[in-house]
Specification:
alpha/beta
Length: 331
């Protein structure tokens, strides 16, 4: 059974504005699925529907085997949710907040205490467990929010831009925890502003634009759709034309760039050694070389016509911008 099944999901707002237009996707049990899209594309609205925070106006979806409309309470019991803007009481301590979450999920008192200790240690916050949340840094708050989403050991975890604005150390901590959760069997649905994050973590990636899924596949499959790897070679003696002739026997020679010999390779990294060997046999000395592969940014631009806003400055503002763009007042 799929962890998430979405069929023709739609959401219209007052004035006929359609934020989501017939989204269809499927996430397998135990998969990490990254959901990417420009601001205003519909990704936050989609996540809000899948987590029962917003009712769809068309289509259907099942999460952890439960219909998101007819069985919303069962969906909520099966999922964990860490949204971009964590609603954490600044006057509570980290331990108190986890205890409260455990109480809401009806865990016995002794089990709640043990679970709080375990989760705070798991996200590296045991040293700050008895400090007020108002004294926490942004990275600490994000880790605490993740811990609170894990209290009831959810089958499916929704992470909405979990590392936006975090420093590299905090980001790596979140990445490591997501991987550990996934290894333990948790399905993860991840929206992110970082293409590197999707590339590093996701088994599959879905790209949404103007309310529709425009691309879906593994990172490798998506990159292959926009181009093949190519090798950039600096020739020591400047014999660019002769070098192009040699490498052209092993791949498609591309026009030279900045004095470099470029060759497109169907086999990617596996063909680097034969290229170097052929140049050496031809008496052409290689000064340096670099294998350049298509990136998810190339895919994103090809599919949406835009770069992902979060890879530049102002990403925190970008999330709020999407919220405004996607959430007109409801009728």
């Amino acid at each position: 059974m799929a962890a998430i099944e979405v069929r023709g999901l739609e959401r219209a707002f007052q004035g006929g504005v359609k934020a989501v237009r017939g989204v269809a996707l499927e996430v397998a049990e135990g998969e990490i699925y990254a959901f990417l899209g420009p601001n205003g594309a519909g990704k936050t609205t989609t996540v809000r529907m899948l987590t029962t925070l917003l009712r769809p106006t068309g289509g259907s979806a099942r999460v952890a085997g439960h219909d998101i409309v007819r069985e919303a309470p069962a969906v909520r019991r099966a999922i964990g949710v860490a949204l971009q803007e964590a609603a954490l009481d600044p006057l509570m301590t980290g331990r108190e907040l986890i205890h409260l979450q455990a109480t809401l999920h009806r865990l016995p008192r002794a089990e709640a205490r043990a679970r709080a200790d375990e989760l705070l240690a798991r996200v590296g916050l045991e040293y700050a467990a008895d400090r007020r949340v108002g004294t926490y840094s942004g990275g600490m708050r994000r880790r605490l929010d993740l811990a609170s989403a894990l209290v009831h050991e959810p089958r499916v975890l929704f992470l909405d831009e979990p590392t936006t604005g975090l420093d590299p150390v905090s980001r790596k901590t979140i990445w490591d925890e997501v991987r550990a959760l996934n290894r333990a069997g948790t399905t993860v649905f991840l929206t992110t502003q970082y293409l590197e994050e999707a590339d590093q973590l996701a088994d599959r990636v879905g790209i949404i634009a103007q309310g529709r899924i425009v691309a879906e596949g593994t990172p490798r499959e998506l990159k292959a759709q926009v181009g093949k790897p190519h090798l950039e070679i600096a020739i020591a003696d400047g014999e660019v034309e002769r070098a192009r002739e040699v490498v052209g026997r092993l791949g498609r020679a591309l026009p030279p760039k900045d004095g470099l010999v470029l060759v497109e390779l169907d086999g990617g990294a596996a063909q680097v050694a034969p290229v170097v060997r052929a140049l050496d046999e031809a008496g052409i000395a290689v000064e340096s070389l670099q294998l350049v592969e298509p990136t998810l940014d190339d895919v994103f631009v090809a599919k949406t016509g835009r770069h992902l806003e979060g890879d530049g400055a102002g990403e925190a503002a970008g999330g709020a911008g999407e919220e405004r763009a996607e959430q007109p007042a409801e009728a």
